[in-house]
Design a protein that fits this description.
This protein has 213 residues and is of the alpha+beta class. The protein folds into 2 domains: 53 residues; 141 residues, VirB8 protein (Nuclear Transport Factor 2, Chain: A). Helix content is 46%, strand content 24%. It contains 4 helices and 5 strands. Helix 2 packs antiparallel against helix 3.
């Protein structure tokens, strides 16, 4: 009888251990399922954001991975885009190139630029003039980025003065008839990034300066 009692006690203890282990397994399973559910919800959120996030294409930019905070790189790309659109053209495409940059000009600058460049477009078509601007990329002064501290507006958007140095070649009938040193001076205002303006900069001033040798 004593043996049977001890055996029954051992069996009872075994049942308790099994019961505890079963509870632990059930709790662990429920925890794993909860984690999997949370991860699935997070992945679904990420996938949705990837599908719906706007992607802005910067015209004429090189294929690369750009950091949003790298404003100097974006600023340099924007300046190249503006200067080449205005100064490297044929008589057949100047009008289209000018139209492509009008969205990046401030309202005041647009009014002045229209008067000047519409006359240039007409002259280019009539006289069949083409132009090639070659930036001096060996110079450390190719792009002089100067932040104008007194030009920050109430939204904290900064203004930059930028100078591009190079040579402008005037071409007629496939021949270079004139080459002159030129400084392209731009004043740029930070603005909100949008689908229409992926650069986040607006041109507030343009000076095309012919440099005498």
């Amino acid at each position: 009888m004593d043996f049977i009692a001890r055996a029954g006690s051992l069996i009872d203890q075994g049942h308790r251990v099994v019961g505890i282990l079963l509870v632990v397994i059930v709790v662990q399973f429920m925890w794993i399922q909860s984690v999997r559910t949370e991860k699935a919800e997070l992945q679904n959120t990420i996938n949705y954001q990837n599908r719906t996030q706007s992607i802005y294409v910067v015209p004429n930019s090189q294929a690369d991975i750009y950091k949003p905070a790298d404003s100097k790189l974006l600023l340099s790309t924007f300046v190249d885009f503006i200067s080449q659109s205005l100064l490297t053209y044929t008589h057949a495409n100047l009008e289209n190139q000018y139209q492509s940059i009008r969205d990046f000009l401030s309202p005041k600058m647009l009014e002045m630029a229209d008067n000047f460049f519409l006359a240039e477009i007409k002259k280019s078509k009539v006289e069949r003039i083409s132009s090639l601007f070659v930036a001096d990329r060996t110079s450390t002064e190719l792009s002089e980025f100067k932040e104008l501290a007194d030009k920050t507006n109430r939204y904290g958007e900064k203004t930059y003065a930028v100078t591009i140095k190079g040579k402008r070649n005037i071409i007629v009938g496939g021949r270079v008839i004139e080459t002159k040193d030129m400084h392209v001076k731009l004043q740029l205002q930070e603005t909100r990034v949008s689908q229409e303006n992926p650069f986040g900069f607006q041109v507030t001033k343009i000076d095309l300066v012919n440099v005498k040798r």
